[in-house]
Specification:
The complex is a heterodimer of chains A (297) and B (245).
Chain A lengths: L2 H7 L2 H32 L6 H19 L2 H24 L7 H23 L13 E4 L2 E4 H23 L1 H11 L1 H6 L4 H23 L9 H16 L4 H21 L2 H18 L11
Antiparallel strand pairs in A: 1-2
Helix pairs in contact in A: 2-6, 2-9, 2-10, 2-11, 3-4, 3-5, 3-9, 3-10, 4-9, 6-7, 6-9, 7-9, 10-11, 10-12, 11-12
Chain B lengths: L11 E10 L2 E11 L4 E5 L6 H9 L6 E6 L2 E2 L5 H7 L1 E4 L11 H9 L6 H14 L1 H5 L10 H13 L5 E5 L7 H16 L3 E5 L3 H7 L2 E6 L2 E7 H5 L2 H8 L2
Parallel strand pairs in B: 3-8, 3-9, 6-7, 7-8
Antiparallel strand pairs in B: 1-2, 1-4, 4-5, 9-10
Helix pairs in contact in B: 3-6
The chains are: A mainly alpha (297), B alpha/beta (245).
């Protein structure tokens, strides 16, 4: 077989389509994982309820859409409501556990996730709801009619992550968050109200999860279990990216989503998920501090 | 703002303070005080509870028994961030620079307080940069990339951003070159001239005796000796007995 045959055998069109798909899912995943990694980095809490904040965000989006008809209003209100809910949950369940064995916070957030999931089931029922996308245009990508909305999701997610990054870099509270993440005790000795910084960080993470829930809502049905798949993937991304590293999580989100997208050219999308786990296992075996962080000294 | 300390009360006082780390009893009834604008030395061998005494004042560990008073009011059990806002600055033994934050951001952690005007912030920064010009040069460099001496300067400058009434200095000269040591010595004098009280924990006995007005000597979690620094300078026996030097 000559090189030309080999090149001809590569499905270039599919690869380009899957690159776009991978970036779109990667950006949504990055939005979820950024919140998760922020929360882990600052208070060493693995938030098992993060997927449920994503799911509840989507439901609030459904409710606000139904009453106001505005997707953008739904996005903003869902983000704010879930941020407030996150703050309330942090104050009532996590703050009293700070500094205890990590197992206690794992159990607490796992319990929260069960409660929230069943609340959603009870409140909204088992039938999936739909969020209408704000516009329905398509453009032609080879043989596909590709929805513009998907590109909008990627752009909006990138915008939210970018704004979050600017806030962390330049904002007064952003500096507080980074200082507290690095050294909780010294931050406190510098007059930073660490318990409230924790609450604020949790609220921001929760709000970002809710925003991704509303953005992602139009692509799938909104149901009480929608958080589960995403949170699993977000955990993989946080570990592969390097626990607590924001840039690492974003890079890993896109990396893993692209790998899965390419894999599903040849295998079914359900099987393509295996790729994430393979990456996770390889990372844990050979570079347990994460793929996308500098080698620790 | 906190009310100004009443002139007659000591600025900081410990009364019979007992502090534990888990089950180990570290401070066995420490009593000491620091007056406004006073430099007080705290000497003793390793592991006698000097650093724990500072941490107890800062509210980083809470005593099981006894009282901590700030300007006459009890502050026992207050969280550290409230004590910092009351006017206690802390320069820990290992400096604890925020390594990934730039020099400027390290300083901002103490500057971005409620009620500090932009003009005042600039004044405080100018003052710190005047004392420590090297920090001005490296203002955009990550704290972790500074040398040990520069990190010590940053730790002190960072505490100064709180406009503290007292700074708790834990072994500021440890591991520093002689040139840096004399610079730290000078900054202690500058702070005193500005009316900032200092509680100085040091292994460097001559420096402590020179910089301080009074000295407490600790042994096994209690204060064993209390004297004017000038008396100890001429009384080697006490120093020898408790510090073995």
């Amino acid at each position: 077989m000559g090189i030309e045959d080999f090149l001809a055998a590569i499905p270039w069109e599919k690869i380009i389509i899957q690159t776009v798909n991978g970036i779109v899912t990667g950006m949504i995943l990055a939005l979820i994982a950024s919140g998760l990694t922020l929360i882990f980095g600052i208070m060493d809490v693995v938030n098992f309820a993060h997927g449920e904040l994503f799911m509840l965000g989507a439901y609030i989006g459904v409710v606000v859409m139904a009453t106001s008809g505005s997707f953008w209003l739904a996005l903003v209100i869902a983000t704010l409501v879930i941020a407030l809910l996150g703050a309330a949950l942090q104050i009532t369940t996590l703050r009293p556990l700070l500094g205890r064995d990590p197992l206690t916070t794992i159990l607490a957030t796992f319990g929260l996730s069960l409660v929230l999931q069943n609340y959603a089931l009870w409140q909204f029922g088992p039938v999936a709801r739909k969020i209408q996308e704000p516009f329905t245009g398509y453009f032609t990508l080879f043989y596909l009619e590709y929805p513009w909305y998907r590109l909008l999701i990627a752009a909006l997610s990138a915008g939210i992550i970018g704004a979050f990054w600017l806030f962390l870099k330049y904002g007064k509270y952003g500096v507080w968050i980074r200082a507290t993440t690095q050294d909780r005790v010294m931050a406190q000795a510098m007059g930073i109200p660490v318990p409230w910084v924790h609450t604020g960080a949790f609220a921001i993470g929760a709000g970002m999860a809710a925003a991704s829930g509303v953005l992602f809502g139009p692509l799938v049905g909104v149901n009480h279990a929608m958080g589960v798949d995403w949170i699993l993937k977000a955990f993989i991304v946080v570990v592969v990216g390097g626990m607590g590293s924001l840039g690492g999580s974003i890079a890993a989100s896109i990396f893993i989503s692209l790998l899965e997208a390419y894999a599903s050219i040849w295998v079914s999308p359900a099987q393509a998920v295996i790729v994430s786990f393979v990456v996770l296992i390889l990372t844990l075996l050979f570079r347990p501090t994460g793929l996308f962080v500098p080698t620790p000294k | 703002m906190s009310p100004d300390p009443k002139p007659m009360e000591p600025l900081v006082a410990l009364e019979d303070v007992h502090t534990y780390y888990g089950k180990s009893h570290i401070l066995h009834g420490v009593s000491l005080h620091v007056d406004r604008g006073e430099v007080v030395g705290l000497l003793g061998r390793n592991g006698v509870g000097k650093s724990t005494t500072l941490k107890t004042i800062m509210g980083l560990v809470h005593p099981n028994r006894g009282k901590v008073l700030f300007a006459g009011s009890p502050v026992t059990g207050l969280p550290a961030h409230k004590l910092a806002r009351l006017g206690i600055g802390y320069v820990p033994e290992d400096r604890r620079i925020f390594r990934l934050l730039t020099v400027m951001e390290n300083l901002r952690t103490g500057l971005d307080r409620h009620g500090v005007t932009e003009a005042r912030k600039q004044e405080l920064l100018d003052k710190a940069f005047a004392y420590f010009p090297v920090l001005a040069e490296r203002r955009n460099q990550a704290g972790g990339t500074l040398s040990g001496g520069e990190q010590q300067m940053l730790a002190i400058a960072r505490a100064m951003m709180l406009e503290p009434k007292i700074i708790l200095l834990d072994e500021p000269t440890e591991g520093l070159m002689p040139r840096m040591v004399s610079q730290i010595r000078q900054i202690i004098d500058v702070l005193r001239r500005d009316g900032v009280a200092i509680l100085l924990v040091e292994q460097n006995v001559p420096l402590t005796l020179e910089a301080s007005e009074r000295v407490y000597i600790m042994e096994k979690g209690v204060v064993r000796h209390h004297a004017a620094a000038s008396d100890l300078k001429v009384n080697d026996a006490v120093i020898h007995q408790y510090l073995g030097v």
